[in-house]
Each structure stands twice: as C-alpha cells, then as structure tokens.
Amino acid sequence: MSVLRSAELVGRDAEWQSGLAALAHLAQGQGGLLVLAGEAGIGKSRLAADLAERAAERGVAVLRGRAVPGGGAQAYRPLAGAASQALRHQAARPGRPS
Ligand SMILES: Nc1ncnc2c1ncn2[C@@H]1O[C@H](COP(=O)(O)OP(=O)(O)OP(=O)(O)O)[C@@H](O)[C@H]1O
Ligand SMILES: [Mg+2]
User: Fold this and answer.
1) Whose alpha carbon is nearest atom 29 of ligand 1?
2) Ligand 1: does its nearest atom lie under 6 Å from the Cβ of 42?
3) CA-CA distance, 58 to 27, in Å (whole number)?
4) Which residue ranges does the record assign to the Orc1-like AAA ATPase domain (predicted)?
5) Atom of ligand 1 nearest to the CA of 12
6) Chain segment 32-70, per-residue pLDDT in tens
C-alpha cells in the first residue's frame, strides 16, 4: 500500500522536542510514557512514526502494537502485539543480547 506522506514534518516543534527529550532520557536508562492525543487527522501517527524512525536510527528497538476500533475485550492487544514482535525479533537473532 502506498501512503502519501510529505517529506518534511511541518511544525510540531514543541512536540518533536518532547519526543527527543524522551529519547534522551531513554539513553540514560530512564523509561517514560509519551502520550500523543488530538483530533482525527491532526498528525499523531505521523509524529509517532517520525519519532520511531529517529529512535531506530539511534539503535533503539522500536516495537509496534495496534489497537483496533471496537476492540472490546482486547484491552491488552497493543501490548501483546509489541511483545510478540519482540519475541519474533529475538528468535530471529539467537545469541544476541536483547
Ligand atoms: N506535521 C506534519 N507535517 C507533514 N505532514 C503531516 C503532519 N501531520 C500530519 N501530516 C500528514 O497528515 C496526514 C494525517 O496525519 P496522521 O495520520 O498522522 O493523523 P492522526 O492524528 O494519526 O489521525 P487519526 O486520529 O485518524 O489516526 C498524514 O498523511 C500525515 O503524513
Ligand atoms: Mg493515527
């Protein structure tokens, strides 16, 4: 599937800086939670994707989990998705420290 995506992230300087700060904390061993909230189409997924790209460039393992509309009882689906991705990644690279 091809996705139209502008080459440059436009604006979002404050949010981008918050993401970079979270990455810097991560590099110091400090975890955290960054919540992107806003109305439909405002750019949450785009910002998350660009931050994930930056994180991956810095050698951070990026795991993705997706919620589905009307997911009902599957409250842990996003976490389960990310965890299984981590396990697959580890299984594909045996012997490497995770
Ligand atoms: N700051 C930005 N610079 C350039 N393009 C952007 C920016 N923010 C969003 N876009 C583009 O606008 C479109 C909608 O953005 P996006 O899908 O990230 O919105 P969303 O908030 O995740 O929407 P939804 O709530 O429906 O999931 C995408 O094509 C995305 O690439
Ligand atoms: Mg989105």
Assistant:
1) 5
2) yes
3) 9
4) 8-93
5) 1
6) 999 999 999 999 999 999 999 999 999 998 999 888 877
